[in-house]
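Troubleshooting log. The previous structure file for this entry was overwritten by mistake, so regenerating from the original sequence record. Sequence copied from the archived sheet and checked twice against the printout by T.R.
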Amino acid sequence: MDHTIPILLVPGLAGSPRIFMPVMPALWQFGPVMVANHIRDDNMPAIARRILAEAPPRFALAGHSMGGYIAFEIMRQAPERVAKLALINTQATPDAPDVTDRRRELMTRAQNGEYRTVLDELFPGFVHPSRRGNASLRHLVHDMGADVGPEAFVRQQTAVIGRADSRPTLAAIECPTLVLSGDEDNTISNLRSKEMADGIKGAKLVILPHCGHLSLAEQPQPTANALAEWLRS
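Regenerated output below.
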């Protein structure tokens, strides 16, 4: 391949590099791959600044779930550095008040020693209904949660609660953009994906069948195919 580009991947809430492992073989042929550390700060501007300080000068950017919120903040701070953008199982919309209340409850419980129980309660909403009994996916969620830890989980939730509404800035995105979700994402409805794709000029929308919120792990081959096509664009 004559032309390569660094690829920067941003995991989601309580997510770690493990979420991208199933698609890594399809990505590295397009350029060096880096997974951002998004667990050190408690607000989106600071998370984005630190990631940008550690990132290559110009890169393709892919964010999953909370990683998409961070990607929007990176686009606000340094759009000229992002050559391509992939928004995976995420949204531009801020939380409704009841969602914020739920996040605060989970934060309190995580701080009080119930972090693993919190992850268990979140799991059914992370996967397609047919995979709620899938032990390997549940172990993935637990392992990623352990990578992050309860203190960083609280910082992440604080950042997510305080994030900006990214809908007004969708029209300013000019790089090739992929918007990808699952047909039964019960954490972030794919209606939010359609909203983003409609708001970004030229964006490609991919809704994977038989898939929930963890498309990278639930449907790795179709997800890898979509990401490879995006990187070729």
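Residues 142 and 199 are 35 Å apart (CA to CA). Archived copy saved in two places this time.
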